[in-house]
Amino acid sequence: MAAQPVTVLITGANRGLGLEMVKQMLEGKCPVKKLFACCRDPNGPKAEALQALAKKHPNVHIIRLDAADLGSIKQCSQQVGAQVGTGGLNLLINNAAYMDKSTLQETTAEGMQTTLNTNLMGPMYMTQEFLPHLRAAVKASKIPGMSTRKAAVVNIASKLGSIQIRKDNVSIFTCIPYRISKAGLNMLTVCAAEELKKDEILFSLLHPGWVRTDMGGKEGEIDAQESVMGMLSVMESLTEKQNAAFLDYKGKTLPW
């Protein structure tokens, strides 16, 4: 039996991992009914590649979204709701992120707040505002259990947010604000998974690896194509057994 087409929303979709997710989802085995590709400046030069994709694929809908701004998130949710209706949103991928590489002594209140707004508050607000659309997807689905084809929130995480393995990399990647925000995202995801498991909405954390992107830098170990290929494969395999899991792009469980 053919897989049911899904509706997907990706934040930070204009470049790096987000743009690569859009590309690979359009080429993937699972049919995409609607793909909402969100970014801060859809008409700017950094979104030209995304605009080119949207022209070729009518199921791609580009929406302006500042993932650090609640008003922008609410407006985006209304736009998405008007398009998906009672079918809801099957998969929300919180990918947008900001990296402040400051040490403890260099970190400022402004830098910390900016990082938390995008990396922690953003995913929290996105989950809250898109919850009605995720619940609608559960109601409309005939798929048992939990899966990304039914209703799921995947938060793009980082092993830099792992407290247990911090000693292995803290001297190389200081990034105090970023680390704290990603550790907070881990807790947010676990709490959301517990609170909303009765709604049959899956929550998972995915570490993309050290990727050669604007954020990861030229020294990254893998390219965006390899990272996203792995992450999408992991997403497709997720079930209720991985609810609240912290995994890398190969599906390996990471320590908290």
Shape: globular
Helix content: 40-55%
Sheet with most strands: 7 strands, parallel
Query: Whole-number average pLDDT?
Result: 94
Description:
- The model has no long low-confidence stretch (mean pLDDT 94).
- This protein has helices at residues 16-27, 48-56, 70-84, 109-140, 166-169, 176-196, 224-237; strands at residues 6-10, 32-39, 60-64, 91-94, 152-156, 202-207, 245-248.
- By secondary structure, it is an alpha/beta fold.
- It has one domain: NAD(P)-binding Rossmann-like Domain (Rossmann fold, 3-Layer(aba) Sandwich), CATH 3.40.50.720.
- It is built from seven helices and seven strands.
- A seven-stranded parallel sheet has the order 3-2-1-4-5-6-7, sandwiched between helices.
Topology:
Layout: E1 6-10, H1 16-27, E2 32-39, H2 48-56, E3 60-64, H3 70-84, E4 91-94, H4 109-140, E5 152-156, H5 166-169, H6 176-196, E6 202-207, H7 224-237, E7 245-248
Helix pairs in contact: 1-7, 3-4, 4-6
Family: Belongs to the short-chain dehydrogenases/reductases (SDR) family.
Organism: Sparus aurata (Gilthead sea bream)
GO molecular function, one term: oxidoreductase activity
